[in-house]
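User: Here's a chain of 129 residues. Predict its fold as tokens.
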Amino acid sequence: DRRPMFSTMIQVALGGAIGAAARYGVGVAVFRLAGPGFPLGVLAVNVIGSFLMGVLVVYLGQKSLTHLNPFLMTGVLGGFTTFSAFSLEAYTLFERGEVGQAALYVGLSVVLSLGALVLGVIAMRAVLA
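Assistant: Prediction complete.
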């Protein structure tokens, strides 16, 4: 039966739309307050999203509300910032005592993601040249 999977996908999609709209709103507000330059909007969203991920992972777990994870954590916070999911995964590794794995995950995520972005920019500039 695929209905539970479809229902979960709808929850993630709706949450994602809400999170993405909130990210845009925060970005616009911070830009209007601070102006161009340092990406304070993205930084604010990443920090707020990571904080909320920490709050939700404990609250939903302790209150037996984990059925809300697809909508709130994957959807809303995933749409708001994928950095919150990254932060949770890194912290989970650290909390399990896998400090080396956590450091490797953080290092690889940052270096490989930045590297992939640069390669994407170079590739597309070459295609469009």
